[in-house]
Amino acid sequence: MPYKSIVAKGEVNHFEASADAALSPGHLLEVTATGVTKHSVAAGTASPAFAREDDIIGDAATVQYAAGDNVLYIVPNRGSEIYARVAAGAAAIAIGDYVESAGDGTVQVQGASASTSQAQRQSVVGIALEAVDNSGGATEVFIKLRAL
Known about the structure:
Radius of gyration: 14 Å
Largest sheet: 6 strands, antiparallel
Distance between the termini: 25 Å
CATH topology: Virus Head Decoration Protein, Chain: A
Strand order of the largest sheet: 1-7-11-10-8-9
Strand content: 25-35%
Oligomer: single chain
Number of domains: 1
């Protein structure tokens, strides 16, 4: 399915910043001193900030940003539904699984031992609304999440 928008449903807050490196719509982001980049700490504390498509110039959610480009990104309100990216070869994610950063801008199922510590709770960026098994995949795929 060719995704036109990262935002599926709900309210989101819109921002923009310079891309520190190449990234794509649906990547989980972290803010840096010079702009934004893919979230880089697997299972680390994360704000649910996701790159979105540059629909101002007509780009779909499959068009990548280059380093130095002006990146449009969103922070969804609780309950909003968005599409995030899952890495090639990533473990299966089931409906209802909590997801967190995989450390490369994609999301992964939250680890089994990650349940009660403050840091582990702060790593969750959403709950899966669809099942995705990309364990045999060669490219990133999208997954629909509800922002928490």
